[in-house]
Amino acid sequence: MSSILLYNALIGGLVFGAIYALIGASLNVMMGVLRVVNFAHGEFVLIGSFLAYSVFSLTGLNPLAALPVVAIAMFFGGVAAYYLLIPRLRYSDDAETSSFLLMFGVSLMLVSSITWIYGADIRPVNFSFDPVNIALLTVEDAYGKGRDGKVLVPTARLVALVINLAIIAAMTWFIYRTLPGKALRGAIMNRDAIQVVGIDIDRLSANAFGLAAALAGVTGVILTLVIPSVDPNGGAPLTLFAFIVIVLGGLGHPIGALLAGMLFGMVEQFSNVLLPQSAAQMVGFVMLVAVVMFKPEGLFGRKVMR
Amino acid sequence: MADLSQTAPTATGALGRGSDIKRQRRIRRAIWYALILAIVIWCAMVPVRDGNLSIYFAFMLGATMATGLNFVAGFTGYMPFGYVAFYGLGSYVTGIAVKLLGIPVYLAVPMGGCAGILLALAFAPTLRLSGIYFAIVSLSLAIILQRSIALMPEEITGGSLGMNIGVLTDRIQGYYAMLVVLVMALLTASWLAESRLGRSLKAIREDAEAADAMGVNVVRSRLYAWLVSAFFASLVGGVQAWFTGAFDTFTAFDVLVTAKAIIYAMAGGLGTVIGPVVGTVVLVWADELVWRAFPELNSFLLGLVIALLILFAPRGIIGTLIRRYPRLRNYFM
Description:
By secondary structure, chain A is mostly helical. Chain A has one domain (3-305): ABC transporter involved in vitamin B12 uptake, BtuC. Chain A has helices at residues 3-34, 41-59, 67-85, 95-118, 155-177, 179-189, 193-196, 201-226, 235-249, 254-274, 277-294, and strands at residues 123-124, 133-139, 149-154, 229-230. In chain A, the strands form 2 sheets. Chain A has a two-stranded antiparallel ribbon. Chain A has a two-stranded antiparallel ribbon with strand order 2-3. In chain A, helix 2 (41-59) packs across helix 9 (235-249). Chain A is globular, with a radius of gyration of 20 Å. By secondary structure, chain B is mainly α. Chain B has one domain (25-330): ABC transporter involved in vitamin B12 uptake, BtuC. In chain B, helix 8 crosses helix 9. The interface between A and B is large, with 44 and 40 residues.
């Protein structure tokens, strides 16, 4: 086991962890504010990826150029989807399970639509930064016999990490320091009580759905830098990872999801290095089951949200 | 005088009502058994008159899975989104028993069913979870099981190529085995609905605490429904392996298997005995009639049907009908 592999796992853990953190946080905004279990969240992310792919393949620009367009389009798309789908759910006996099934149906429609528009193939996003790789550090005697090894990281991944962290910082600031953010947190803590202080819960819910969709789309754009290809069937694994993250962080707690996302990213990258493939794919789900069975409030408890 | 006889219930009146209930039950049963008989005759004739085996097999498979899921989703309110775990386990146990141990397939399938019951016992602690936690954990357990089987040595499970038992099994026999399993599931459903257990389950679904106070053993009743449900899914998985002869970890643990079971049951009406059958007939028929014209839109339409059902008819065809015309309750199980 070369220590270079472990360094790579560490950096990969940061890069993917930040992505999972963002996906989990946006899923948890929906979960917390609306009690909607969005089984189509991975497809929301995919829409962002495919829009970035379109911008790149049509104009040759950096996929990041799609970022503002995707954010705005997904926000309004999300608000529209909210009014189309969610209010009716209130009439059902078990709103959470109904939303789960409803969004599963939506995810089938989205995958099918994306496949219909773009075809079923995995498309490469051949955008490259200059330089392609950056050597972060040198490991002495990495391969034995006195040969040194360098820990090379794709520039695109570093850029993705920086942008991702910036968005996470902005989101945390928004949730803790602005009035709409406080309303959002209030709605997560007690949906009934905040209506007493004069908040229009319908408008807040619609905006929260839009915000979550926009964050998901933005994550999709960033994802094209980390994994430079787009796959119409790539949404389902993302949804499952997002569920692992929000369960680890506590259902409905965006900040818990940020921490859990980083944790899951690390665990995933290190298990990829240390375990056989099928076992590595299992680790996250085993963590999920263990947390739900033994610590259903999430690894970080309720204090995180305060 | 007429007023009097209406306001004051007499002994004969109460008796009359009692026989009314019995008569209604007889009608409900007659309709139900006639439906089962019709299905048996119709499906049994298909191989003889060279009908399309695959479609009728899909119908029988769907109806059995939907009925099996209804035991737990309809009668207890749990939504096992990883229901496919039992189906996949049934396929693999059957496949391994036939191929490696040389056991005849008609014994291997019940072995798969028993393995399903054991797995359900192992998963039983999840029954204390509620709502969405149960659904997510159920799905995760199905994925864990799938990856565990993928981890097993290739000589046993066939690895990524999957298993092929086609040379050892007969397709037509598999078809009739499916019919037998379907009839077993339907008879179990009507027996359960009228049994003490079925009434306990309905009471628990409406209000678990009240049922508990009335002396219903909540934990045990739910467990029984869960085991029965798992048993049938595992049998179906085994028979599916018998009929098609080939499967791998992706087809045997495809989340669409669960999704279709849920949708068929919901389309007809969760919690009713006849609902899952009606839902399956309608959707499989629609699948054939309409969706064949637009193959590329197949999964889009499945998703659309799911969304529309949840939004506009969460009680399904039978449930909505009964809600609108309560008298129909006398005719449908």
